[in-house]
Fold each of these.
Amino acid sequence: MVQDQERVPLDLVASIYEAALEPSQWDGVLEAVQSVLRADSGLLYLEDLQAMEASFQVLQGVDPKRLQDYFRHYIRLNPAFRYRQHKPLGTVTVSHKVLADREFARTEFYQDYLRTLGRFYTMGGHIAQEPGRIAVFSLQRSKREGPFEDADQARLRALFPHLRRAFQIGRQLADAEAERHAMLALLERIPTGVVLLDERRCVVFLNRRADSILAAGDGLVMTSQGLQAIDPKLQPVLERLIHSAVETGASRGTSAGGALSLPSVAGRESCQVLVTPLRMERVRVDLGRERICAALFLQLRDTQPALSEDVLRDLFGLTPAESRVAVALVHGRKPDEIAAESETSRFTVRAQLSAIYEKLGVHRQAEVVQRVLSSPAVLADRNGHSTDEN
């Protein structure tokens, strides 16, 4: 094994791990491995064995269009692929040892696929395996270049532990990034303002709702010193709540947080603030290197939720007219007001209200409001689009 490793350029090993951090560098890695092992083309891909397509692929010297044919049909006809399925993960195989050249030349895989690419010999193996998916690293040569020799196989075998580990690291980082983006998208859909603070009590994230509240100066603003209450008398209270919540989130305190109402200087609606710790062992919130320790939830007191009538119809089976009545109720309208605004009779509105009660399984107007506000309808705007599209 030591002899094998001595044949591997150290700068190539370094570039393999750099590709784990920056996936675009896999192209350079594949090209370098091809050069070291005198291959005409190379592949690195993650194949979904059920969907018969690659969710990740890096190509050198291979037509991407022809590769799709491989994923959809020829992969299962490849003698080397079938052979590797019964070998330990990371086994490096060469095609001429799996099947003799004369026999291989008669296979459908060669005649209908590999021959059209001008390739004959292959070398590679499976570098990772997940449920229903498998990652493959493979090199190809033309028949004129001759088969991959034992020395080539030894050099790739020395590289394989690095390729496997780097690919696994890259997948873990990609999964973490996908989780991060999903978390941020979820926070953007919440109709409440959300502000996340790190261990230094610095703001590391705020959703668009929080940004609009802070920009308007409705009781709370963002300054170079951090979050500031418009009313200076309430600033110490806000700072105390933030400090205790961060300390608890950092496992140095036991405060459960708190809430306060911050009136606007201009006399507009007040901003209601809930400050709460985020214990990392309970809630996984990661925006990078910052350790998220606390969150502020902001809501203007008299803000009416944006509701989609289409979403209400889908959720509760309401008619268009009933959906309009339900939205009006949530916005504080009384049945008589709804009738006047919609130019219908009070009897019609009351009949619609009775139908709403039945479909929502409630008996009072207040229960309609509670049922609607606790449903996913608050995550969509009046046009039926999700709030993160605004």
Amino acid sequence: MNNFQCIAVDMGAASIRIMTGTVTDGKLSVHEASRFHNGTRQMEGHERWDIEYIIKEINKAVSGILAHENKSISSIGVDSWGVDFALLDKDGNLLDIPVAYRDSRTKTMQEKWTKIMPVEETFRKTGINFYDFNTLFQLLSIRDLEIIRRTAHILFLPCYVSYRLSGIMFNELTISSTSQILDVHGKKMNEEILRHLNLRPEHFGNILMPGTMAGNVKNGYILPSEVKMVAVCCHDTAGAVMAVPSERENYAFISTGTWCLAGMVSNSPVINTFALENGFTNERGFNNSFRILKNIIGLWLVQGLQSSFNNKYNYEEIAGFLENTKTDTLIFPDHELFYNPDNMKEAFDEFCRITSQALPATPGEYFKIAYDSLCCSFRDNMDKLENMLNTDIDIIHLIGGGIRSEYLCRQTANISRRKIIAGPVECSAIGNVLAQAIALKVINNAEEGRGLVRNSFDIVEYLPEEDFRGEYERKYKLYKGLAGG
């Protein structure tokens, strides 16, 4: 197929993008057809996703593309953030507005779960580390409610959107792996864990491998029958990592967005005590790979500060602050203060008080602290990955929306003391397109796909600045003190 065109729905926690992707003559391109704001709302006592609004806007964008490109669009795939899900009745109707992962209903669930199954056993069974937002803890919080007794199907959010577009009901491996319920090997939900949640494997149905056809589009849905629904890497980070333009099979990456995910691609999971105690998790990737990674509170820090300053400063103005501001203050992004504060600026102030640091005096100092602290966290976790995997990490691939900040890329190189390869920005959408191209046999495998990415998109390299090495080492030493290491 010389000219392949598809639709990639790339759902982020802050914005949702509907892209067209094309593979022609050894080149891959993506074009943004539509983008709209996404966020949570307080509804019916919980922080929820406005799923009907999301689906309405996606339908509108997809309809617009099909009206112009109907004969040439071959397929569609949907990816999103992890862990969140929709509950459906036996007729496939939505039972409840999906609750968002930051909702407080999971606050005491980790403690409750450890009385059911020990931490080490849960980690050994699933490979997934303990985060409050995990699907496991969300489902535990509603285990004894009437809604669970009425639930016939549980679809992870991108799979629910796929179902609403096509009528095809499925879950996919990479998004399922974020749940802390999927077996660490294979593609089945762990039945012992499910029993403790009053659930059965049938609730999750058929779990498809990424890069496979989901089935034939049903009548009465927005998609015409000739457009194929593909189970892509439905977890956006899995798709992004698949699209990293590395020539190596096992490569280190940092996906930069609302969350930053620092990790390495591996052929096998790491489920030892060091991984558990240091917050590393084993999510599934394309072609039976594993993503050994750490979830880091990412540009959520910057988004929160923007909100605290009444959205007065855009990213261009923030870039100016970063280049022209000096401060020795840092934060530890993993601290619970920064997970979901009412006011991010006040969370920064509180952290400074409890660590006896000078409070930031200007908006620029707050933003500088956020970026520099993230870069220190990147080095910390890459150093731990080296130790854990007994390997040398000399190159880090930086991908995602955060690489629009030249400062973030440059400072990551300086603080990490490693070569940074930045790009592309839209890696999750590109990975979505690659999985569709593999499913339709336009390209043969992920290695060929990464070659397409190298040939099609600009990447920028950053090397550490040796003249200021002492300054960056001093900053990192301060960070390690705050992080307790």
Amino acid sequence: MADRRRASVAVTGYATQVWAVTATELRKLRHDPWELLTRAIQPILWLTLFGQVVAHMRGTADGVPYLDFLAPGILAQSVLFVAIFYGISVIWERDLGVLHRYMVSPAPRSALVLGKALSSGVRGLSQAVVIYLCAAVLQVELSTRPGDALLAVLFVCLSSALFSTFSLIVACIVKTRERFMGIGQVLTMPIFFASNAIYPIELMPRWLQIVAYVNPLSYAVDGLRAVMLRAGRSPFGLAHDLIVLGLVTTVVITIASQMYPRMTE
């Protein structure tokens, strides 16, 4: 009984530490909501301009109208683009001395990383609201099932946590804002285009198909396409998508927890 109580106290304490970091990050967002609004412009342009033009050229993809096919891919792209530059905030924290205060706190490093990942998930959800509204205006056949909406939230949060933590790892390696911005810009386009976000994997050359299958974004898009659209389906399987995203997220959080303290060196 005593061991169970100690374990419960430890879990509660860990969750409190994670939430403290998450709440701190969300307060930053509350003070600068314009950041989310400006980042919403690009995915809206993708849907309203690129999506509608290509829809007239291609018609359908994977058995659904191309604009419907594209909407979940643009949501995943939006989450990626927001999350991949999340690591620059860690560099700012180091330069301002905030990171040093984190490092001397008794919180485990994994709690610090997980807290930041959760706050990134909230940012991703704000993008999801924008994309859903835009897709509805464009008459995309969206699913209205509550279960699908909850699964969409899960996919957005998982993919946002994954790519923001990956971004943190990059920040721990490069350690300067200039290098980070350059690497971030180099990474986003290959990850996006080497996925199933804007075209089916079946249309890719064989070598690019292999890249797409090892690209975590492909599994985020596949899952979102199945739960976001009324006629959506998941060629990979929803369980497979969630397992892959969950495993990769766990791996990057573990790596980031080991590398995070090096930012102060």
Amino acid sequence: MIQSCVDKDSTTTPLPGGATTVDLGSGDVGILNYAYALEQLEAAFYTQVIATPYSGMTDTEKTLLTEIRDHEIIHRDFFKAALGTGAIAGLEVNFSAINFGDRASVLGAAKTFEDLGVAAYNGAGKLIKDVNYLLLAGKIVSVEARHAAAIRSLLSPKTASFAGDDVVAPATGLDPAMAPSAVLTAAQPFVKTTIIAANLPK
């Protein structure tokens, strides 16, 4: 069992106009806060998807998306509990670019989030020092990859897009890995809270 940890470096600061900025902190706790931020984003997205189903959502699609929502909520809540008082505050999301009434818009956003999540965990693995946290990240990224494959299959059921060349390199058979800075840049348009990752391990 992973015990709760505290990091004085992770902070939440109010900004003019009611916006906030969060500093993820440093070391393993910073990486856990990084994962926690991404899981907050995904949990919020799928919660909205199920609360306002897009037009024509089938029972099969609703079941799958509900299961993904539940997984993301479990991941989010786990990181919050593990981080304890070192956890960053809840993020304020911005889904204004997503039309939750349109299937293509929702599944396109889901594909973006899931592919990004897999690349994020793959990129963060080498930065984690505690082997227990590394084991946890490995277990979570495998679930995120299952989500990514399922979403891609919904988008293109008659193709092998679940393992397309854009995510699985033909020469190596491996998924991509992205550094936290690149992941957060890609995720920031969907988050009103400004995320600072300057102190994360390199």
